[in-house]
Amino acid sequence: MMATAPAHEFLTDHRGAPKPRFEMPLSYEAARLGMAFHEAGHAVLAMAYGMRVITSEVIAWEPEPGGWALTGNTAHEARNTPPYRFAAMAAAGEIAQVGYLMAYGLWTPERAYACTADHDREQAIDMLAEFGYCLARDHVPAGGKSWGMVRGMARRKVGHLWREIRTVAHAMDAGTVLTGDEIADLTGMVNPRFEGGVA
After folding, report:
1. If DSSP codes are grouped into helix, strand and coil, which group holds residue 123?
2. Which of 110, 123, 149, 172 is geometrically suited to a Cys-Cys bond with 14, CB 3.0 to 4.6 A?
3. pLDDT per position as a tens digit, 98-110
4. Which pTM was predicted?
5. Rounded mean pLDDT, 136-142
6. Are the CB atoms for 20 and 118 separated by under 8 Å?
7. What pLDDT shows up at residue 196?
8. What is the rounded distance in angstroms from the CA atom of residue 28 to the CA atom of residue 25?
9. What are the CA-CA distances from residue 117 to residues 39, 42, 99, 182, 194 (Å)?
10. What is the pLDDT of residue 1?
11. Are 192 and 184 in contact (CB under 8 A)?
C-alpha cells in the first residue's frame, strides 16, 4: 500500500472531475479483492471483445494513518470495437465487483451501492457520442441503447467469463499490476497486437 495518494489522473474521471468516493463496509483485504474483480471485469471483457489490454491494476494508499483507500485502472487500446461492446466493457467492472460480493457471501445493499461506478457509465456515454452513437442513462433512445441494455450485455458476458475474471482478480490481488500479456497467459485469451500500437 502506498503512503500517499496516487497520481491525479487515477483519482479523476475522463472529464477531469474527481471520482466519487464511497465507504466500503468491508475489511481492507476483502475490499481490495473486490477492486481486483472490478478491474478484472474490465480487462477480461476488453480482451474478449478484441481490445488490447496494456495493464490492469489495483491502487491502494493510506490517506491517513491506519486508514485505506482503493481505486483501480485498466489501460487498453480499442480499434474498430463495436460501440456497444465498448460500453459493455465499461459496465463490466461494477458488475464483476457486485458478482464478487454475491459469490463470496459478502453482498449487502450498502456494499453493492459502494461498487457504483458512474464514471465508467459517463465515459461510455461520452465516447459513444463522439462517434455518433446514442447511449442513454435511463431510457432506450431512438436508434440507440440504454445503459440498462448495455449492463445486460455485460452481465451475460461476465457470467460466461467468470472463471477468467476470478483467475485474473486473484492474481491481481496478489501482484497488484498485471500486463495484458500476463492476463492472456493466465486465461488462454488473446491479447491482440495492433499495427503501430503499444508494444
Report:
1. helix
2. 123
3. 999 999 999 999 9
4. 0.93
5. 92
6. yes
7. 65
8. 9
9. 11, 12, 14, 25, 29
10. 65
11. no
